[in-house]
Amino acid sequence: MSKGEAPKERVIDVRVLLARVTELRELISIVQQQVNELSMQLSELLLSRNTLQELSKRSEGTQALVTIDRLGTAFIPAAIPSNWGSEVVVNIGRNYYVKADRELAIKMIDEKARGLENVVNARRRELLQLLNEYNYLQQLLQAIFRQARAGASQPT
Questions:
Q1: Is the pLDDT confidence value at 3 over 80?
Q2: Which fold has domain 14-148?
Q3: What is the enclosing helix (H) or strand (E) of 92?
Q4: Helix or strand or coil: residue 65?
Q5: Predicted structure pTM score
Q6: Do the beta carbons of residue 32 and residue 134 sit within 8 Å?
Q7: In the chain, how long is the greatest CA-to-CA distance?
Q8: Domain coordinates in residue numbering, the chain
Q9: What is residue 9's predicted lDDT score, i.e. its pLDDT?
Q10: Distance CA 140, CA 13 (A)
Q11: What is the pLDDT of residue 49?
Q12: How many other CB atoms sit within 10 Å of the CB of residue 32?
C-alpha cells in the first residue's frame, strides 16, 4: 500500500468463520482427550518407577498386596522374593517385554517417561494454540454480530 491510499476493507465470510470455530471445537476436544490419556499414562509410569525405588528399601522377602486390576478393586497377597531386584520385567512397547535388574528397569522407565512427557508437552502446546485461535475467532464473531445488530437497529 502506498502513502495516501486508504486501507482496503476486508470482507469476512461469517459462514467460513463459523465452520472454523466448529472445527476448532472438535479439535480442542480431541487434543484435550489425548492430553488427558497421555498424562494418565505418564502418571502410571512414574508410579511404577517410584514403586520400584521404594520396594528396594524394604526388607528381604517382603509381603505385599498386589492389585489385580487398574482400578484397585481387588488385591491378592504376594511374597516378594529377596532376589526380585534382578528379575524385573519391563514393557518396552508393542507387547514386548525384557527382563532387567531394578536399576536398568528404572532407567528404562525414566527414558520412556521423558519421551512421553515430551509428547504431552507438545500436545499441550498444540491445545493452547487451538484455544487461542478459537478464542480469537469467538471474539471476532461477537464483534461482527454486535456490529450487525447495531446496523439493523438504525432507522433507514
A1: no
A2: Helix Hairpins (1.10.287)
A3: strand 88-93
A4: strand
A5: 0.78
A6: no
A7: 91
A8: 14-148
A9: 67
A10: 12
A11: 95
A12: 15
User: Rounded distance, CA 85 to CA 62, Å?
Assistant: 12
Q: Which three cell numbers stand for residue 8?
A: 482496503
Which of 125, 135, 106, 130 has the alpha carbon at shortest distance from 38? 125
Query: What is the residue type of 128?
Result: L
Q: Could you tell me the three cell numbers for 146?
A: 454486535
Write out the three cell numbers for 115. 519421551
Return the residue matching grid coordinates 481387588. Answer: 74
> 108: buried, middle or exposed (CB in 10 Å: 19+, 13-18, 0-12)?
middle
Q: Does position 42 have pLDDT exceeding 80, yes or no? A: yes
- Tell me whether residue 109 is exposed, middle or buried, using C-beta atoms within 10 angstroms of its C-beta: 0 to 12, 13 to 18, 19 or more: buried
CA distance 46 to 52: 10
Query: In angstroms, how far is CA 156 from the centroid of its own chain?
Result: 54
pLDDT tens-digit readout, 99-122: 999 999 999 999 999 999 999 999
